[in-house]
Automatic annotation (TrEMBL):
Top-rank lineage group of the source organism: Bacteria
Keyword Nucleotide-binding: no
InterPro entries: VCA0040-like (IPR007163)
TM ranges: 6-34, 55-78, 84-101, 113-133, 145-166, 178-198, 204-225, 237-256, 262-281
The keyword Membrane appears for this protein: yes
Higher taxonomy: Bacteria, Bacillati, Bacillota, Clostridia, Peptostreptococcales
Name used for this protein in its record: DUF368 domain-containing protein
Keywords tagged on the record: Membrane, Transmembrane, Transmembrane helix
Amino acid sequence: MSFITRVLYGVLIGVASIAPGLSGGTIAIALGFYEHLINAIADLLKHFRKNFLYLLPYGIGGLASVACLSVAINYLFIHYPLPTNTLFIGFIIGTLPFIWAKLKSHQGEKGLRFSHVLTAGFFFLIVLIPVFAKGAGSGSASLSAGPLSMMILVGIGMIAATTLVVPGLSGTMILTSLGYYKPLLSIASTFVTAAFSLDFPAAARQLIFIVPLGVGVVIGVFLTAKFVQFLFKKIPSHVYSAIAGLIAATPVVMLADVERSAFSPLNIGLSAVTLLVGLFLTRKLGE
């Protein structure tokens, strides 16, 4: 896989990381490089130069997409919620055939067992918890420049990193339920706007929040990757069953967050088109 291709895949992971309901790990699964990515992160210190050079283009693409597309994606979700959600739902549903293929390849002639169905169902219900507890994360947490906020941001970064690594688990969904999605989106938007406006003092003030968050993300990604790598070695078929359950529940969570007023005939027709576009693009990218 070329450097440019990995940069482009990193862009997609970055988009998935800031789009509500999506998972960067899900995109990596669909594109066929998830296990390679996990192994490179988990074994980073063991073969540092080799794994760092492999991960570098993904990092460049991911950071570039978060910086450049966060404002645009936020605008689309605010003004065109239903068509935008169904576009990403198309991406999500389109990954299920790839997960099924992975599950079959690990099971071979043994076929599915009841434990696989139970695992998928358990993780399906886990993702639906924010829907049942809707309103718990409707408020926004406050952040200051004090030591307590810095510690909280490290912890939030670790949580966000877990959702980056675990396919089907949406970081934005978790952050919303905790009340930190809107504050962090505001910080990112302010930083990007200030940087592009060459207002470096304003951009620097946001680094007080961004740096501890980044530290938490790095720690969380490394620790979670180690754990996921272990699971893939020991129980790969059950891991893919869990991923299938997580992915299958995500569209329900996304649609539950759309206001009823958005379900007009025009929006529903447009949403059907964007759903098909998402399915088509996922299939082509997976190929």
